[in-house]
């Protein structure tokens, strides 16, 4: 094999490796909803964001694809592109972040950058959203919100039950202390003989 052929083979293999899905965390729809709500994303837009994540990365938090046009790569669950929004190897782009920071399981920084993209260019900045979400039925996230509400109610009930048990224990301790105190003041013969 001559040198040019070897270089082409190596570059082709590298492109295949880079375009392959990294072993990342694949979020469930409800996990994605929770992350978006934690970042205080507007509730009315959460279905659009979930659809975008499903269409761009299939909810894979560590997905890296490329090279695309201008030798750019896209990173993370929102497939944030290195041509404009971040820089490979150092902070930069309009989000002033390292692109590699978007290819991990913590998606809070991804959400900040994605919201910036959306505020500047709208959801149309993502091809996946344009093809699979715009004018289509969006994911039904009601079950996720109901599960969280139920979980919140259950947690409050458990907390109330613990609080009542602690109060009951405290009252019992006070009663025992008061009884011991009264008994301690009685003459010995009255304790024994009433």
From TrEMBL:
<dbReference type="InterPro" id="IPR019799">
    <property type="entry name" value="Glyco_hydro_22_CS"/>
</dbReference>
<dbReference type="GO" id="GO:0042742">
    <property type="term" value="P:defense response to bacterium"/>
</dbReference>
<dbReference type="GO" id="GO:0003796">
    <property type="term" value="F:lysozyme activity"/>
</dbReference>
<feature type="signal peptide">
    <location>
        <begin position="1"/>
        <end position="22"/>
    </location>
</feature>
<keyword id="KW-0732">Signal</keyword>
<keyword id="KW-0929">Antimicrobial</keyword>
<protein>
    <recommendedName>
        <fullName>lysozyme</fullName>
        <ecNumber>3.2.1.17</ecNumber>
    </recommendedName>
</protein>
<dbReference type="Pfam" id="PF00062">
    <property type="entry name" value="Lys"/>
</dbReference>
<comment type="similarity">
    <text>Belongs to the glycosyl hydrolase 22 family.</text>
</comment>
<feature type="compositionally biased region" description="Basic and acidic residues">
    <location>
        <begin position="152"/>
        <end position="170"/>
    </location>
</feature>
<feature type="domain" description="Glycosyl hydrolases family 22 (GH22)">
    <location>
        <begin position="95"/>
        <end position="113"/>
    </location>
</feature>
<dbReference type="GO" id="GO:0031640">
    <property type="term" value="P:killing of cells of another organism"/>
</dbReference>
<keyword id="KW-0378">Hydrolase</keyword>
<dbReference type="InterPro" id="IPR023346">
    <property type="entry name" value="Lysozyme-like_dom_sf"/>
</dbReference>
<keyword id="KW-0081">Bacteriolytic enzyme</keyword>
<feature type="region of interest" description="Disordered">
    <location>
        <begin position="145"/>
        <end position="181"/>
    </location>
</feature>
<keyword id="KW-0326">Glycosidase</keyword>
<keyword id="KW-1015">Disulfide bond</keyword>
<dbReference type="InterPro" id="IPR001916">
    <property type="entry name" value="Glyco_hydro_22"/>
</dbReference>
């Amino acid at each position: 094999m001559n040198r040019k052929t070897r270089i082409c083979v190596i570059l082709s293999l590298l492109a295949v490796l880079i375009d392959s899905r990294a072993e990342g965390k694949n979020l469930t729809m409800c996990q994605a909803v929770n992350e978006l709500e934690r970042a205080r994303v507007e509730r009315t837009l959460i279905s659009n964001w979930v659809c975008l994540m499903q269409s761009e990365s299939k909810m894979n938090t560590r997905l890296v694809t490329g090279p695309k046009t201008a030798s750019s790569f896209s990173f993370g669950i929102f497939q944030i592109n290195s041509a404009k929004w971040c820089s490979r190897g150092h902070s930069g782009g309009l989000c002033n972040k390292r692109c590699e920071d978007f290819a991990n399981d913590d998606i809070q920084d991804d959400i900040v950058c994605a919201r910036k993209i959306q505020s500047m260019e709208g959801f149309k900045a993502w091809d996946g959203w344009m093809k699979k979400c715009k004018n289509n039925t969006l994911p039904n996230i009601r079950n996720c919100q109901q599960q969280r509400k139920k979980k919140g109610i259950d947690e409050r009930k458990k907390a109330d039950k613990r609080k009542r048990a602690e109060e009951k224990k405290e009252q019992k301790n006070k009663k025992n202390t008061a009884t011991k105190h009264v008994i301690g003041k009685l003459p010995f013969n009255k304790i024994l003989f009433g």
